Amino acid sequence: MTIPHTNYVVDNQGQKMFVQLNIQDWENFVNEFRRIESMLFLRNKLKNAFSEVRQIQTGLKTGTTLNDFLNEL
Asked: Which residues of 16-27 are buried (b: 16+ CB within 10 A; e: fewer)?
């Protein structure tokens, strides 16, 4: 994603207060943000899953057999 052209709204002292983007750049930004947010969510879920596997392998947690898992469905 490229950095979009931005316009700034400044106060009387010249301090930047707001950013203006054209609508296409805004929509691209929102879509990219959602994509990254989804990737981070998946990353955290996978990290937790691998941590749980290590706990099962070291005996700190009891695992579930495939049969038990399927019977719960």
From this structure: eeeeeeeeebee
